[in-house]
Structure formats: structure tokens, C-alpha cells
């Protein structure tokens, strides 16, 4: 059975950059499941699978369609219980929910501001127009002004990682001795930045940097299959 994962990409379709897609790519690899990537632009998403979703990732697994990275993780855990666990029970699910909330309210906004022009410039013209209009409506100001604010985020970004920096002093992964979906959540955010932006958010010698390098090496180096910007 061929699985298809719809993944957000820019002009270079070999460089899918969505943090949520990367969570799912590592989740599928974690379960030992093969899949094909179907790159899509922002404006193509509403037409996928006869309007099945407004967001990616969207996974087709046989006759099953699942969107949203967390819902996909839940589906994989239920559909493939004989494979390595992604959530490791209710405690792991609860931890992942917390990590997702923290990542999307702390890391994602900062990365979005830091990389906003890099994301815009990586898109096809039709998607650039959509991205500019939708993000300027969201932020209430021009993209260039958002990018200017992102310079301050660069200076403070390292401090935002302190919760996982503390945790990684005791164990190699957020999941413990081995990675769980919680690791892939944070990895997805930092991989997004790594792929779309030349700004380097992680410093040498930081335990978070060491953890991120370990995550890049997981599943035969899946994270390294796309080079840094």
C-alpha cells in the first residue's frame, strides 16, 4: 500500500518546510511506514482530495484520509499498535499536548516573524500574493514591518528554549531514552527555521543543539534529507 503525504512546499518542491509536515514525516518513519511526498503550494490546499482539508499535512493511508499532525499521530498510534509507540500511553499524549501548545504559542510566532520574508521569497508568485495578504491581515501590518520586529526575536530566541534545555540535562530526548512525538513537535519548529531561513537559531555547545543534531540523524538521517538554507 502506498501512503501519500501532502506537504507544503515553495518553488523548490524538494524542500518541504512546514513544521507540521515534518512532525508527520518523522512520525511515519518512527512507525517504520513508507510514504510518498506530494508537494503542494498554499493555494492548492483547498483543492486537495476534493476539498478534504484546509490544512496540511494531509495523509492518505489507503482509503483513510487524516489531516492535522496531532490527529495523524493519534491515528498512527491506533492503526499501527504493533509498531514503536509515538505517544506511549495517556501520559505521553498529555505531554505531547502540552509541548504542542508551548511550541505553537512560543516558538512558532517568533520563528514566523524571523523567517517571514524568507518564507515569502521561497514561494511561487501566486502563493506569494496569498501569503502576503493573509499574513498582513493576521499581523495587521506589512510583512516588512513584521520582519523588522523579528530582529528582536533573534536576540531573545535562545531564552525561549529554556524549558527543554532544562529537561535535556537529564535525558537525551524529550521522550526519555528514545524520541516520542513530543520530540518531533519541537523538531518540526526548528527544522522549519533551518530550511527556510539563513538565520541560525541554535548555538554550538547548547544541549538543545546537540538534541536537534540527534533528531536530524534519526530514521537514517531523514531530517538531513533537506539541506539548511
Automatic annotation (TrEMBL):
Residues 8-84 form the GST N-terminal domain. It comes from the Bacteria. Gene3D superfamilies: 1.20.1050.10, Glutaredoxin. GO terms for cellular component: cytoplasm. This is Beta-etherase (Beta-aryl ether cleaving enzyme) protein. It comes from Rhizobium meliloti (strain 1021).
Amino acid at each position: 500500500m502506498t501512503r501519500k503525504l501532502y506537504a507544503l512546499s515553495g518553488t523548490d518542491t524538494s524542500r518541504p518546510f512546514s513544521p507540521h509536515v515534518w512532525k508527520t514525516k518523522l512520525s511515519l518513519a518512527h512507525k517504520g511506514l513508507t510514504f510518498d511526498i506530494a508537494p503542494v503550494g498554499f493555494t492548492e490546499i483547498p483543492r486537495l482530495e476534493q476539498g478534504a482539508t484546509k490544512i496540511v499535512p494531509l495523509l492518505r493511508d489507503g482509503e483513510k484520509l487524516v489531516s492535522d499532525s496531532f490527529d495523524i499521530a493519534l491515528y498512527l498510534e491506533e492503526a499501527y499498535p504493533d509498531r514503536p509507540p509515538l505517544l506511549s500511553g495517556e501520559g505521553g499524549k498529555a505531554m505531547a499536548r502540552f509541548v504542542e501548545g508551548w511550541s505553537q504559542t512560543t516558538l512558532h510566532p517568533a520563528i514566523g516573524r524571523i523567517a517571514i520574508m524568507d518564507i515569502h521569497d521561497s514561494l511561487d508568485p501566486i502563493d506569494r500574493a496569498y501569503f502576503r495578504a493573509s499574513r498582513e491581515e493576521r499581523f495587521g501590518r506589512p510583512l516588512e514591518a513584521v520582519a523588522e520586529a523579528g530582529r528582536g526575536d533573534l536576540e531573545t530566541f535562545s531564552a525561549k528554549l529554556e524549558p527543554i534545555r532544562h529537561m535535556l540535562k537529564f535525558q537525551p530526548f524529550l521522550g526519555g531514552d528514545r524520541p516520542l512525538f513530543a520530540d518531533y513537535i519541537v523538531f518540526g519548529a526548528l527544522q522549519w527555521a533551518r530550511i527556510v531561513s539563513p538565520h541560525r537559531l541554535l548555538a554550538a555547545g547548547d544541549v538543545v543543539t546537540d538534541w536537534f543534531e540527534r533528531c536530524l540523524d534519526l530514521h537514517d538521517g531523514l531530517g538531513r534529507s533537506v539541506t539548511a538554507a
